[in-house]
Design a protein that fits this description.
The strands form two sheets. The protein has a six-stranded mixed beta sheet, sandwiched between helices. Strands 2-1-4-5 form a four-stranded antiparallel beta sheet, with helices on one face. It is about 35% helix and about 30% strand.
Length: about 220
């Protein structure tokens, strides 16, 4: 569950988010849309605490985000980035396993879940390859597996299909919705694609100039 009350974020004299209120229920899949500069990525960065210095309240589960240690936030929340952010010098398996290693998990503990996710995302035979040996869609699947390794109850996806062709993007959203249902995750997906939003039943949130201006049921 994500709950936001009165969230305001400023950079100097410029206000990026204006008294924003939002509730995403436990187990809900929702889209967040808006033009570039509307505040979508800033909102996600505040949720996973990459940036701070805000007024208002962000609650993750039942705990204020600012009260969560970094390792606990990483346990509760997975993040998928548009740019994949894979480490080129590490194999597919090593990139996925890294999400557990930063939380202090052992290789023996990580291995079964990492292998399960690689199989589930269609990468079972490619764990020994490096990112440059994969297609864009395959790299995004690695990023998805990595984000899910610690079984987070919340998943944020920032334009996860932005660098993919339409067919691959559609397949990626199908996979994300399937995983969301299987794991009963709370999932918030930022996208510019009207085609994707129309193709999947989910609540649609629209941001304009730092405010959420529309809530539409899927």
């Amino acid at each position: 569950m994500i709950r936001i009350q009165g969230l305001t974020k400023r950079y100097g004299d410029f206000t990026v988010l204006h008294d924003l209120h939002l509730h995403v229920a436990a187990g809900e899949f929702a889209f967040l849309q808006g033009r570039s500069g509307s505040g979508k990525s800033t909102l996600l960065k505040l949720l996973y605490q990459e940036i701070g210095d805000y007024t208002g309240e962000i609650v993750i589960g039942d705990t204020p985000a600012q009260a969560l240690p970094k390792y606990e936030l990483r346990r509760r929340m997975g993040v998928i980035f548009q740019s994949f952010e894979l480490l080129e010098q590490k194999t597919v398996y090593e990139n996925v396993a890294l999400a557990g290693e930063v939380l202090g998990r052992t290789g023996e503990d990580i291995a079964p879940e990492a292998q399960r996710l690689l199989e589930r995302t269609g990468l079972g035979g490619k764990q020994g390859l490096y990112p440059h040996q994969l297609s864009g869609g395959e790299q995004q699947r690695v990023a998805i597996a990595r984000a899910l390794l610690n079984r987070p109850p919340i998943l944020l996806a920032d334009e996860p299909t932005g660098n993919l062709d339409p067919e691959t993007a559609m397949a990626m959203l199908v996979l994300l919705q399937e995983l969301q249902r299987e794991e009963n995750m709370t999932m918030l997906v930022v996208t510019h694609s009207e085609l994707l939003v129309e193709a999947f039943p989910a609540r649609r949130l629209v941001m304009e100039q730092g405010r959420i201006t529309a809530h539409a049921a899927g």
